[in-house]
Design a protein that fits this description.
The complex is a heterodimer. Helix content of chain A is about 75%, strand content about 0%. Chain A is built from 11 helices and no strands. In chain A, about 45% of the residues are buried. The mean pLDDT of chain A is about 90. Chain B has helices at about 1-20, 30-50, 55-80, 80-90, 90-95, 100-130, 140-165, 170-180, 180-185, 200-205, 210-220, 230-265. The N and C termini of chain B lie far apart (about 40 Å). The model of chain B has no long low-confidence stretch (mean pLDDT about 85). Classes of the chains: A mainly alpha, B mainly alpha. At the A-B interface, helix 2 and helix 8 of A face helix 2, helix 8 and helix 9 of B.
């Protein structure tokens, strides 16, 4: 029990630190405006692309699938971008990484706490993007009470999977020079491509689509779409029931968490044994 | 006079050197800066393919992907650069050196254009190869002229923005982020800008990238350009005007913001 309380306290401390670094230069309203503008304009780009090509209005059911996938993918982008630069900032700008390493909480808990704070602030951006979709583009969400358990379970598992990927990315950056700063954006684009965020992975070459089916985020987005829109999106997953999608999401998430943990241990060992934990590489 | 010119030319080369030569000492940047950004371009191209769009739209995305590289370089390595320099402690060294601030900015721009050109060429080549984009250039001199005018105008905009960022604290990061998707949307990176409606498109042409991108598309997909904003001739004239105004404004703004920074004590204030 004591260890659990200590874990929660560490997570909250790291989360508060993330919030302070990110937001205490502005009042909360201004900060949230900054948080929301980018995703909303990202969604607007999709609206125009769809309209230009199909000539159909944004309320078309085909667009709703695309819009919802994009709205929830904001979580992946923000968490990866946020956690992907934590190491570079703590190591090279604030020069605090060595002290964080020495604290009893450990790097894994510290990174998870920073990521959790990012998740909380990003949820507001997702909600606003979804609301914009409904109010301005007529996206027809149709989630009933019966869909709620599926939705909550999918959201929880998807968040854990995203956090695990973010921690793995941050762990990998431990041994990288400053130019790895742009890596999170690229990795986020990789997941955008492979998980069917805005197009069905069935149009990808079969071996690429097979890779996509190993990633929990693919099942997360599929489960979210089914809960909110009551229609499967990816054709090759259409014969899976909602429960099967959730089950697959569960085990792929578990595998991702374990892989992330392994990467963190290996990266920590690498930087300690090579003396790179507090290297300075900016110029 | 001659001594002054030589000192400034050396300063330009010195600042560009870090980006042209220094960065290549860490070859992993090619993976992070060339290969990974390709995936974002592929993502948008696949959206069009998924929607069953005509092939020229995929060509638009590939060309825009190359131009986005320059815009990101302007945002993060021009506009925000003085903020990073302030945090690293280099800004005060630039300010006490017997050189023009514009030499530092010009050196950053030249080095940035070189580095980013490699990324842009990588995106163009890979995008062309993977998606089989067919270009139809009938007027190479005009294309080269438009490209250089666009670069002169948008890097002028970057220099102008850098004077603002010089006084920023942590909002610098968020402000640079703020000028990504909204600018991609307004300048028509992924669709013909006229799709936003004529009035919005006209307003968006205040950003020189809108004009440059539209002209480049007209010249690179001759006969296949969808719904251009203006004729290439008009866009060239507007880009010349933008280049002159933005670079002049950058010079003035830099002096003013330096004075403001000194008088309010914010010029070398770190970790705000």
């Amino acid at each position: 029990m004591g260890r659990f309380r200590s874990l929660i306290r560490s997570l909250m401390t790291a989360g508060r630190l993330e919030w302070a670094i990110e937001s205490n230069w502005a009042d909360p309203f201004l900060f949230m405006t900054y948080q929301v503008v980018r995703p909303v304009f990202g969604a607007l780009i999709l609206v125009v692309m769809f309209k230009v090509v199909s000539g159909k209005p944004a309320s078309d059911p085909a667009f709703a699938q695309l819009y919802v996938g994009n709205a929830f993918f904001i979580l992946v982008t923000q968490v990866l971008l946020g956690l992907g630069i934590v190491i570079f900032e703590d190591r090279e700008r604030f020069e605090m990484l060595r002290y964080i390493y020495l604290t009893p909480m450990g790097l894994g808990v510290y990174l998870a706490g920073r990521g959790l704070s990012k998740i909380v602030s990003t949820m507001a951006a997702i909600l606003i993007t979804l609301a914009v979709g409904s109010l301005f583009f007529g996206i027809p969400y149709s989630m009933g009470i019966a869909d709620l358990p599926n939705f909550v379970a999918a959201l929880f598992l998807g968040t854990i999977a995203t956090l695990a990927i973010g921690v793995a990315l941050a762990a990998m950056s431990l041994g990288m020079a400053q130019n790895g700063f742009s890596m999170p954006e690229g990795v986020s684009a990789l997941f955008y491509l492979l998980t069917g965020a805005v197009f069905s992975i069935d149009i990808l070459p079969s071996w690429v689509a097979a890779l996509g089916r190993l990633i929990p985020l693919t099942y997360w987005l599929e489960a979210i779409r089914r809960s909110l829109l009551h229609r499967p999106y990816i054709g090759s997953l259409a014969n899976m029931s909602d429960a099967q999608v959730l089950l697959t999401l569960s085990w792929t998430t578990a595998a991702t968490v374990m892989a992330s943990w392994g990467i963190l241990i290996a990266a920590r060992h690498y930087v300690i044994s090579t003396g790179k934990l507090d290297q300075k590489t900016d110029h | 006079m001659k001594q002054n010119l030589m000192t400034n030319l050396r300063a330009i080369w010195g600042r560009a050197y870090v980006r042209i030569v220094g960065a290549n000492r860490e070859p992993s940047w090619l993976f992070f800066e060339v290969l990974l950004p390709l995936l974002a371009v592929f993502g948008f191209a696949m959206i069009y393919r998924g929607l069953g769009a005509p092939e020229q739209y995929i060509g638009f995305v590939v060309v825009s992907g190359a131009m986005i590289a320059f815009w990101q370089n302007i945002l993060w390595s021009m506009a925000a650069q003085f903020y990073w320099e302030k945090e690293m402690g280099n800004l005060e060294l630039y300010l006490i050196a017997p050189i023009s601030r514009m030499s530092i900015l010009l050196g950053m721009a030249i080095g940035g254009i070189f580095m980013t050109a490699i990324r842009a060429i990588g995106i163009l080549v890979a995008g062309t190869f993977v998606f089989g984009v067919a270009y139809q250039v009938t007027n190479w001199p005009a294309l080269i002229l438009v490209f250089f005018l666009t670069m002169s105008a948008i890097y002028g905009l970057g220099m102008l923005a850098s004077s603002l960022f010089m006084l920023f604290g942590r909002e610098a990061w968020h402000t640079a982020n703020l000028f990504q998707e909204p600018v991609y949307f307004l300048t028509g990176f992924y669709f013909p800008v006229r799709s936003l409606g004529s009035l919005t498109a006209m307003a968006a042409s205040a950003i020189p990238l809108t004009l440059g991108l539209d002209a480049i598309r007209q010249l690179i997909f001759s006969g296949n350009a969808v719904n251009p904003l203006f004729t290439v001739r008009t866009e060239v004239l507007l880009l010349i005007v933008a280049t002159v105004i933005l670079n002049w404004a950058a010079l003035k703004a830099l002096r003013y913001m330096e004075y403001l920074g000194k008088s309010t004590g914010r010029l070398t204030l770190k970790g705000q």
